[in-house]
Amino acid sequence: MKKKILLFFGLAALVLTVATAARSPKVTLVSKQFKQVKYIDKRGHIRYKLKSVDRVVPGDTIVYKNVVSNFETKPLKNLVLNNKVPEHTSYVKHSAKCSSKCKVLVSVDGGKTFLPEAKIKRGKKVTNVRWILLSSINQNSKAYVSYATKIK
Amino acid sequence: MIFVASFLEAKGVRAGTIIKNQATLNFSVGDETSLYSISSNEVKDVVSQVLNFVLKWQDSEPCEIYEGAKDKVLNLSLRNDGNGKDTILLSFLEDSTLGSLVESMSVFVDSNKNGYFDKDDKSIDEINLDADEQRKIFLVTSLKENISTSKNKLEVEIKAKSKIGGSGIKGTVFKGKGENGVDAIDGVGGGVSFESVAYKLVTQSPTLIKRVEYFKKQRYYLVSLYLDFEGNANLKNLHLTDRVPRGLTYRKNSIKFNKKYQSDKRDGDFASFDFNINSLSIDIENFKLPNKVLVTYILNRRRR
Q: Does 1.20.120 match the CATH number of domain A27-151?
């Protein structure tokens, strides 16, 4: 009898999980891109500015910004974003950032393992970037992560 | 605000390459135990074609050229530093202050890729080069006879210009004109590369002074031939002859070349004497500056 009860609750939990997972949460993830442009300000200092991308050429630095928007009634938790560094580009060192508190990890083996950027050996090519958001995103709120790549 | 267009310098990813970015997100909602996963839209970029060339003169010093000179060659290299195929138009501009010294001037490509100009190389005014491809080209010039100029250089400006773009202004966009219909952009040199090359104009006016001294007591004449050169070129294949006047005979083995005795025979040394036609012959294969040549020989009076 005890076994039957356990089996019943187990099955019920599974059905609930599948049902929950099957629904489409009202959450969007939008990827945007910008071109980083260098300029000299009035004081003669070198500055950088983000512009919309019209066309790209080798040597250009592209900043990708991934924006998460929560339209659920409850906060989003356990947020982990992953981004593969596009082919023909190279990751710009220490460019991965977040709008809120987060932990940035990178991979040099195609996403099999991740490490903090500071622990990556010199000369290794970053293949993937991961952001672990340490805070939740409330209802009708947004958060974003970004990183930069240079076109080879 | 001055924008620093550091791009457009580097050769790199081929024009037309598509660069895609897509992110994924894993999360849970509220206290739900389920983990959700969603993907972002895919952001795409198509790499445009950068039009860049490098035209470089390769000779360590100007090639010597002189009146009547034929097919004098200057060596250059042309490299497509862009990231796509292009046709490069080649033209040149001769220094106008020199007037019309030039009989012919053409650009040739090293068609057989042997590294030097020869009869197999073709005269061109445009060349197709793939990304990162380099070819050797030659500027080949012949000068007219009887020219006169006070200048000592013949300067020529060679221009390589992209057929796709080549506005001369960095960053000029040619929509859809690049490889496979991508946009093309003039690179750091504006899709144009200039190189100034020069020939060293040399004059060739050797002077020959003949001096004859009579030594009365010994009854002979000492003939001295002084060959000097006013110009600034090295001469090749010089040949000097002198005939013995009537009433005089050549004294055997008296020829000296720069104070060194020469044999009378036509052999490996500079001078020889043909007794049949009473003529002295001097062959100087190369006359290198600042050398001077002194040839002496003795003529005896014929006995009556």
A: no
Interface ipTM: 0.85
Within this chain, do residues B145 and B225 fall inside the same structural domain, yes or no? Answer: no
How many A-B residue pairs are in contact by the CB < 8 A criterion?
153
Residue of chain A with shortest Cα separation from B186: A57
Pick the residue of A34, A56, A57 with the most B CBs within 10 A to test the interface with B by mutation. A57
CA–CA distance, A88 with A127 (Å, rounded to integer): 11
A33/B43 CB distance under 8 A: yes
Interface test with B, best of A53, A55, A77 (most B CBs within 10 A): A55
Question: What separation in angstroms does the CA of B66 have from each of B123, B148, B150, B239?
Answer: 22, 10, 13, 19
Residue B220: domain span: 206-301
pLDDT digit string (tens) for B187-214?
999 999 999 999 988 876 677 899 999 9
